Structures are given as C-alpha cells and as structure tokens.
C-alpha cells in the first residue's frame, strides 16, 4: 500500500502541494507507470528498506519495453539501484521474472558485498553487478491502483 504521495513529473496531477514539497522534494512519480525515482543517495539495503516503507519495493523490470522507458526517465543520473540482487539473482519483491539486461562481462563471478544490481544510464541502461554498499539514487515501484487514479 502507499502511505505517501509524491510530486509528479511534468506538472500533472498532485494533491497537497505544500505538504508534498516538504516531504518529497527528492521523489518523482513517473505518471501512469507506478515508478518512483527517488533522488536520495542510499546503499542498496537502505534503498530497499525505504521503498518497502514508503511504497512497495525496489523496482522490478519485467521486459525490454520497461527497460527502455526507464532509460529515458533516469538519463540525468549516471547510476540507479534496481531491485535485482544475488540470491540466485532474484528480484527484491520476489516476483518471478527472467528478464535481464546485463552489460558486457556482467554479472561478474565475484561474490560478497557486490551482490546488488544497478542500472547504468551512461552504458545504454545496461545492468551492472556492484557493491551493495555503493550509495546512489534508486527507483521504487508503488501501488499502481493508487498512483494511476
């Protein structure tokens, strides 16, 4: 469920603008997608906790269409966390999804603290296996029924 509202990209609908300016200056709802781009710098685990507390979870990318949509949305940021992590490379929200968009040579065979995945907008949106301790912006997904009303 969603317990907060976010500012809306492109000046579309928003409610309680004063409150939203105070609470979510750093979050953008991407209209009609259910994606929330959070422009705060957090490591992967803290980003996951934030998404689960305020929205649903870190973003699961289901197909190439969604991947292409995201590439254009986050083009001003070089790197963003997504919900994929190594535990047999599963999505944070536990959905079964086999879509992958790895950069060449990824995922690396090393393990340990580098078991999280981010999307590199400087490499055509390709996914890179990175240290979970790296701090960067991230994308959550929200409850679409609420967000798309």
Topology:
Elements: E1 7-8, H1 17-23, E2 27-30, E3 35-42, H2 44-54, E4 57-58, H3 64-73, E5 79-85, E6 90-91, E7 116-120, E8 126-130, E9 136-141, H4 144-147
Strand order of the largest sheet: 1-2-3-9-4
Distance between the termini: 14 Å
- CATH architecture heading of the domain at 39-142: Roll
Task: Report the helical percentage.
Answer: 10-25%
Whole-number average pLDDT? 73
CATH class of the domain at 39-142: Alpha Beta
Domain C-type lectin: 30-141
InterPro entries: C-type_lectin-like, C-type_lectin-like/link_sf, CTDL_fold
Protein name: C-type lectin domain-containing protein
Pfam families: Lectin_C
Describe the overall structure:
With about 150 residues, the protein is an alpha+beta fold. It has a domain at about 40-140: Mannose-Binding Protein A, Chain A, CATH 3.10.100. About 20% of the residues lie in helices and about 30% in strands. The chain is built from four helices and nine strands, in the order βαββαβαβββββα. The chain has helices spanning about 15-25, 45-55, 65-75, 145; strands at about 5-10, 25-30, 35-40, 55-60, 80-85, 90, 115-120, 125-130, 135-140. The protein starts with 6 loop residues before the first strand and ends with a helix.
Notable features of this structure?
21% helix, four-stranded antiparallel β-sheet, 149 residues, alpha+beta, disordered C terminus, globular, Mannose-Binding Protein A, Chain A, five-stranded mixed β-sheet
């Amino acid at each position: 469920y969603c317990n907060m509202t976010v500012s809306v990209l492109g000046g579309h609908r928003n409610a309680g603008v004063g409150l939203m300016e105070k609470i979510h200056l750093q979050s953008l709802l991407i209209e009609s997608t259910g994606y929330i781009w959070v422009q705060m710098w957090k490591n992967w685990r803290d980003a996951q906790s934030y998404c689960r507390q305020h929205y649903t979870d870190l973003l699961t990318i289901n197909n190439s269409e969604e991947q292409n949509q995201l590439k254009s949305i986050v083009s001003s940021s070089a790197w963003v966390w997504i919900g994929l992590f190594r535990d047999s490379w599963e999505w944070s929200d536990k959905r079964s999804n086999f879509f992958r968009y790895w950069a060449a040579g990824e995922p690396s065979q090393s393990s340990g603290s580098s078991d999280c995945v981010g999307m590199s907008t400087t490499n055509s949106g390709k996914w890179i296996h990175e240290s979970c301790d790296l701090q960067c912006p991230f994308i959550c997904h929200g409850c679409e029924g609420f967000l798309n009303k």
